[in-house]
Every structure is written in structure tokens, then in C-alpha cells.
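Deadline looming. Please check this record:
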Amino acid sequence: MSELNKEVVDLVWGRPPMEECLPPSSIFFVFITGFVFSENEQTALEQFEGGPCAVIAPVQAFLLKNILFNRESSNWRQMSEEEQKTALCSTLSEILESACSSPSTGFCLVTWAKGQGPHTSTHTNTQSQSQTQDMPESSQPPQEQQPTALAAEDLGFERFHSVLHKRTVMSVSDLREEVLSLYHTWRGCCGVLLFLYSVILTKGIENIRNEIQDTMEPLIDPVHGHGSQSLVNLLVTGHAVSNVWDGDRECSGMKLHGIHKQASVGFLTLMESLRYCKVGAFLKSPKFPIWILGSETHLSVFFTKEMSLVGPESPSEQARRVFQSFDPEDNGFIPESLLEDVMKALDLVSEPEYVSLVKSKLDPESLGIILLGPFLLEFFPDQDSGIPDSFPVYHYNGLKQSNHNERVEYVEGTALVLGFEDPMVRTDDTPVKRCLQTKWPYIELLWTTDRSPSLN
């Protein structure tokens, strides 16, 4: 690991910090956590400090996908300890498989060097005590007891990077077996960081640098400790691109990389409602109805079991996506000169005489623009989306302090997806709702709790 230390540290934490930046050793201490299940919600991971959500939230999203859609159980919220182990390790393996650029290079797992892991503290936290009190002392795995904050501080940033060991496995079956054998490592001190380093080295440092838009931007923000969009995209899609739109775009002669295929789980962000960015269809319409929600500072997860929400793209949805690809500023219109290109891209009749006729119909005042709404009504009128009027939904926030009574539990609710006509039901205007409206403009949310779940 020693020869890669500086490259990994520079990529994750940044080069020597600017004056306003925290030293990496300060940010490091919020990443000492492992993947720990909530005592109050058996399928939910708990986050103890701000920062690691960029790793924990994507893992939680994939974990829910596997529990909801790949596991045969009458109650998806109930899991034994053995089922938790299987579900978490299969999820971590899946993310590592997605990050692997080439099967010939194998998969890298970053663990503690033999005998070099953090010493177990004599004072363990409540969760560790409850998980190990029934086990004979000799059989307790060394990482099962969580070090206290003091024990982790004794480890230190420099010490941590000096006691890491990299191992490589060449097949998917060996990867899954190794990840399973390291279950207590993932759950123990720095388990989240060890997994992140495993993903980075599996992907390849040079491959990540080639995908990041700004190679000077570290994966973890040196001022606040938040994960970058490149880090989130790496875990969600296997590609560390910096943008959330579909495909690549040219800007001043520079190619800007986006998302190139439909993701398994999605991503929506409050930043889009503020018009700072535009999330493309590959993240907005994933294969499974699970979305990571981004606020200015935190990541949480919104999900449902309603698969009709992520069914095949309807012709009108495809038309909207194609139209918007010609409208990168998200103005809601395109110059009339681009109408023929849009019609060709959608395999519509695009003979010059017909295009001219459509222009005069869609732009009767000769303003020189074509609006999205009239375009969709002209070619795809009254098309049923197939989405039910209402369906159960859930929201996950891993931070204890962001949950009611500081208990990490899913918040249940009902979503109503209405038409563009003035809805009869109006619920509160909350950050969660504004985030979801970037996908469903007329969604309304009725939560079973007194207050709306928090994005932060």
C-alpha cells in the first residue's frame, strides 16, 4: 500500500490544504465509523457524524434495492444478524463489481495489515456490547468491539495510512467470498473508509482522474468534509464523472462527462429546484424506485416498492428527454431552428414542408421558439403514464439527530402524483417535496408523522 499512499490521499483528501481548509487529519475523524445497523430499524444503516453520507447513503440505497427486490421475505424491515451480514456484504460486492474498469485487473480490498488494526478499547459503545455480550471472549472478532473516539484518535491520520494492506482477487466469486469474510472489518473502526479506498483502487486512480472534470477537486471537500458529486457518481454508477446530466457535452471546446446509462438506483437533488444543475433521465429514472436525495450538505434516500414508477420509458417521456437534450439551459423551449433535429431524433416525420407546417402551428406568433408543452401536446396528447394515483413511500436519513426522537427509522408516507391541472390536495412546501418535484412536478406527500422528514 505504501507506494499508493500519497496518490490515494491526494485523490480523496486533496493536496496540501489552503488556508481556509481543514487539515485532512481533522476531517478524517468523522470517517472513523463502520457500517452499523440501527437498533431501531433492522435494515437501515446509522451515520454518527456528518460527512460519510456520501458513502453510507449510496450503500443504503443499494442495500434497500437488494432487500426489497432480491430477497424473499414477508417483512422487508425485519432481518436477523446473519441476514444483515449477507445483505450488507452482497451490497458492498455489487458496488465493487460496478467500479471495476477491467476484469483483468481484478478487485482490490483495503484492510488492516496483519496485527496492525486499532486496539480494542476496554470501553465499548452500547451497540458493540449488545452484539458481543453473549459470545465467549475468545470467539469475539477483534473488530467487533468498536473503539471509542479516543481509541480512534490514537490511531491518527498518518498512522491509519501506514497500517493498511491491499489484497487483490481476480474473480467475482472470490471477491464475494473475501468481502463476506471481512464483515467485521466493514462494521468496525474506519470500515466506511476502508471500503471507499477499496472502491477507489478497484476502479483505478488514473481511471478516476480521467473521469473527474477538475482533477484538483478531491473526492472529499477539504473545507467541510462533504463527499463530491464525483464520489457519489462513482458509488452509484461505477464512474467518477462530475456531472449528473445524460451523456457528454461540449463546452468551449472541452468535453464534459455525464452519465452514460440507466443507473440501478437514482439521484435527485434540491440543487435542481434552485436551478444550479439539471439531473438527466439516467439518474432520474433508474431501474429500481429508489432515489438518493441531495441537499446542500447531506444525502438521504427516498424509496417505494412501486415498480411502475420505473417502467420502460414511455414515448412522451422519451420525447421530453430528447427535447431537453437540445435545451441544456433548461429554459423549457428550443430555437425553432432545432425543431427538425428534435423530430429526427424522435423518428417523427421530418420532411422540410411538414417541419415548416409544425413550426407555424407551435409558434403562431413567430417568436422563433418552440415550447416543450405545446410540442408534447402536438405529438403525444393524452398519454397515460401508467403511474398509480397514490402509492406508499418511505424516507431514510441515517443521522440520528435528523430523526424524530433521535431514532434512525424510516418515515412512512403516501405520495400522490397528480396531473398538471390545479391539484385538489396541497401539502406543505418542504425541501423533500421540492427535491421530488424535479422528477414529479405535481407530487404531493402525506407523511404519517407530525413533521416532514429532513433532507439534512
Remarks:
- The chain has 19 helices and 14 strands.
- The chain has a mean pLDDT of 85.
- The longest strand covers residues 390-396.
